[in-house]
Design brief:
Blueprint (H helix, E strand, L loop, with lengths): L9 H36 L5 H22 L9 H25 L5 H22 L13 H21 L1
Helix pairs in contact: 1-2, 3-4, 3-5, 4-5
Length: about 170
């Protein structure tokens, strides 16, 4: 920042950077608490929860997510490239979500149960590619294929799982 930004604009750029970080954190917390309360707490834990209880559970789940993030953050300090790390682990979940979206959009007979299983089973599939590409298993299929190809194959296998379970 010292080399590329003039002296008068450094404070403005720093303020914009801080605002972007806070905005991203707020949206992630909002998403985390919403997903937990609406997709896990209400359907599986307390179907008859009042709005007040749901809001309180959302606040608590957001606080728990922050505590987990604070505990994990020091462990990530030794990463060389944090962005690559984030992309790799986002790539574990993203193909399953893409598969659910595409299947739900283009195939009317896709079921909720199949979508849930498609997302859940996409995680071990993606982790298999991660383990195989790191050289932990020399006898595995798909060793050393590019990351984007791993995500593509995971999405295709997730779509196949969704179609199969929906068909059943």
């Amino acid at each position: 920042m010292r080399s590329f930004i003039p002296t008068g604009l450094k404070g403005l750029v720093l303020a914009a950077l801080a605002a972007a970080i806070v905005s991203s954190l707020a949206s992630m917390l909002n998403s985390t608490s919403t997903i937990f309360t609406m997709d896990i707490f209400r359907p599986y834990i307390n179907k008859n929860a009042s709005d007040k209880l749901t809001v309180n559970v959302g606040r608590i789940s957001g606080a728990v997510a922050l505590v987990i993030a604070m505990l994990i953050a020091p462990l990530l300090g030794n990463l060389g490239q944090a962005f690559i790390f984030i992309q790799e682990y986002t790539g574990v979940v993203s193909p399953g979500i893409l598969a659910v979206f595409l299947t739900g959009l283009f195939w009317k007979r896709a079921t909720n149960n199949a979508a849930i299983w498609g997302v859940i089973l996409s995680i071990p599939i993606a982790l298999y590619f991660k383990v195989a590409s790191n050289g932990w298993s020399d006898s595995s299929f798909f060793v050393n294929i590019p990351f984007m190809d791993q995500m593509f194959i995971t999405a295709l296998l997730s779509i196949a799982i969704i179609l199969f379970i929906s068909y059943l």
